[in-house]
Backbone:
């Protein structure tokens, strides 16, 4: 039946890494692989009370179809929550989506014809790469520095792409505690990116799943909040700040951009679940999302600190072996010495009952073989220490074997 | 910002009818417009008990990310439920989707390049038309007869399309109690369609949201169950048999076709909510879906009968004015006398506090101006009688005005 595949489906592949990571679901493996929020952060008891009440007393509403734009109650709660954060939006500038991955799908639908260019970090979020790939966008990578995308290289790549006659659409960034690197974009670079986008008439796709999980340092204004021209689309999600299983997110956009997004959402899924929307809205209105965030940030801080301590304690002292130390989010990024292949090493790591995500899958240019992503969100501090101990052993052995190989 | 729109988004329009129908949300309007399930059919009390239990005792699972393929518990429950219906599938031949509209989105993604041909009924489901349009498929309409698609015309259209050098992909049908017409495809036509698809190497997209809402007559085997070659994709949904607000559905496909669907679902939304999946699975396992269906079918039968009675009682006796009398589903289809424009008439109907969906939006060839869809699911029998009384008055006046116009 393969003769019936669309050209986009013929190109889409199941991720080999994803298949390998399925092995890591065995209980004796300590996995730093999945980018899953800490389950102890889910406000489950409060949601249980609200869910039962909604289903008993508002079932005619919450179990029925809703509007494509999303529940007005939820959007109103979001407008109020976002205002003190410097994000001024009206109800009509918010679109509820069935989680942020759908947001990416919608912006691909609304803005990308095959061959249209999107610029993204090297490395960047794998799910975004997959969404852009499905819509046959031309993904051009720009190196990520310790303070965000290299804006000079971005300008260079823009010139090259224009010279090649390509149609440029936008820049995809995750400014806060980026997936996979944990790196945060500085204020100066956010402003510089916005200036470039204005000059070059590009859109900015600002994906912010982790910004509210900041456990140290001061928040940096979102690009969306500084954009006076309405060329930025902001993606926010409930997955990490409330619960991933709700599959609920909100995207913010102005004017024509929002209009296009609503029009393509309609045939995509008609509407997002009103039940999960009202769960989130009632939780926000009755318990407060900021209060909840204050409760859960220490969970992530403690785990991140445990992982940094474990890395410092267990990892061998090797030239080129280093890692990020983020102020929020779920991820630590590790650079292994040049020439070490983290994809190859994963098999051995799994034999030693520890897992991670090889970084290469997050590079649209096939680079990053010597990098890996460690998620600290799912394990206890004790598991983190033991897992990093196992991983450090594999790293040390891999480096030693390479030296022997090089000498031979 | 319109210069940034993709060609598909530039083509997508907000439905004028949908905007008009927003007016019908006023409480003094009796609306036969929306295709919404009867809220009294939602098993809300049982769902309330299960939801609270899941969120208290299984929150680490149900509030977390799930697999793209969907919950094994839910798929296992579906496998068991489908077997006595003659639908034999394995777990891996079922894909959970975020409602059936997403199923349509996924099959467009997996199988349609711009210009690829899909054959569909005249009239057919508007949401499917919108999904196919978004992916720039070439929709070729085939007249719907009282027993389903005109297979002779289908064969003719296939020859014409092949002669024109088009790439043919498949046939989209809703065999049971079709949306919008309420018409059911006969067993003979299902077999004939399957034979044509086999001979011409076409896929069949079999959409079955209403088949289980049969309140009279005997079930007819699904095309999927008779297809020995695995070229049929079956879309089932929980929207009408449990609750639309769960946004939950399951699609069945074999081999390569399923593989392509899973690969395109991953970047579409990562996964469907495990919480809503487990709600449905637990409901099926603890209460039984067949028992529930036995409870809710009389609700729809009673309403349909009320609408048929009201139509017979109130509608004027005019040449060409007739309607369907379905054995299930949510819809009755009305043909007005030739020359009466149901789209034009809608404004006057709303003035008289009654609403419907003009049929023309369901015709991919721009035809059907003298048709309308009446949904009997949402109103009480008394409201149905009153609403049809108002509508009949508008119809009679419109026909009379036309005669005067014609005479002048």
Residues:
């Amino acid at each position: 039946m393969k003769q019936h595949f669309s050209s986009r489906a013929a190109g889409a592949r199941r991720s080999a890494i994803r298949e390998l990571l399925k092995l890591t679901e065995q209980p004796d493996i300590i996995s730093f692989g999945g980018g899953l929020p800490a389950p102890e952060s889910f406000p489950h008891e409060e949601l249980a009370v609200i869910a039962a009440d909604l289903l008993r007393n508002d079932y005619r509403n919450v179990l029925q179809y809703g509007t494509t734009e999303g529940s007005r109650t939820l959007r109103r709660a979001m407008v109020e929550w976002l205002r003190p954060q410097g994000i001024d939006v009206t109800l009509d500038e918010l679109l509820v989506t069935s989680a942020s991955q759908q947001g990416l799908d919608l912006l691909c639908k609304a803005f990308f014809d095959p061959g249209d260019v999107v610029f993204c970090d090297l490395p960047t979020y794998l799910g975004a790469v997959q969404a852009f790939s499905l819509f046959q966008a031309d993904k051009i990578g720009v190196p990520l520095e310790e303070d965000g995308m290299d804006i000079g290289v971005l300008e260079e790549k823009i010139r090259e792409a224009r010279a090649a006659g390509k149609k440029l659409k936008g820049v995809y960034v995750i400014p806060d505690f980026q997936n996979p690197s944990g790196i945060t974009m500085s204020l100066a670079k956010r402003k510089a990116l916005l200036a470039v986008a204005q000059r070059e008439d590009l859109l900015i796709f600002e994906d912010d799943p982790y910004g509210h999980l900041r456990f140290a340092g001061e928040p940096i204004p979102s690009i969306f909040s500084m954009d006076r021209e309405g060329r930025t689309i902001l993606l926010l999600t409930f997955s990490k700040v409330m619960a991933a299983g709700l599959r609920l997110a909100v995207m913010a956009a102005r004017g024509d951009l929002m209009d296009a997004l609503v029009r393509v959402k309609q045939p995509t899924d008609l509407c997002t679940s009103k039940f999960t929307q009202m769960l989130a809205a009632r939780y926000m209105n009755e318990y407060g999302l900021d209060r909840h965030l204050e409760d859960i940030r220490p969970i992530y801080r403690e785990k991140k600190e445990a992982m940094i301590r474990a890395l410092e304690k267990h990892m061998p002292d090797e030239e080129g072996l280093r890692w990020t130390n983020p102020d929020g989010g779920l991820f630590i990024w590790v650079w292994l010495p040049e020439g070490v292949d983290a994809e190859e090493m994963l098999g051995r790591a799994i034999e030693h009952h520890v897992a991670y995500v090889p970084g290469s899958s997050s590079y649209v240019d096939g680079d990053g073989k010597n990098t890996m992503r460690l998620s600290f969100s799912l394990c206890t501090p004790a598991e983190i220490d033991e897992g990093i101990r196992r991983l450090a052993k594999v790293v040390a052995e891999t480096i030693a074997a390479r030296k022997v190989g090089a000498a031979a």
The longest strand of chain A covers residues 138-145. Chain A touches chain B through 81 residues (CB under 8 Å). Chain A has two domains: 13-42+291-400, 44-286. Residues 13-42+291-400 of chain A form a domain with the Aspartate Aminotransferase, domain 1 fold (CATH 3.90.1150.10).
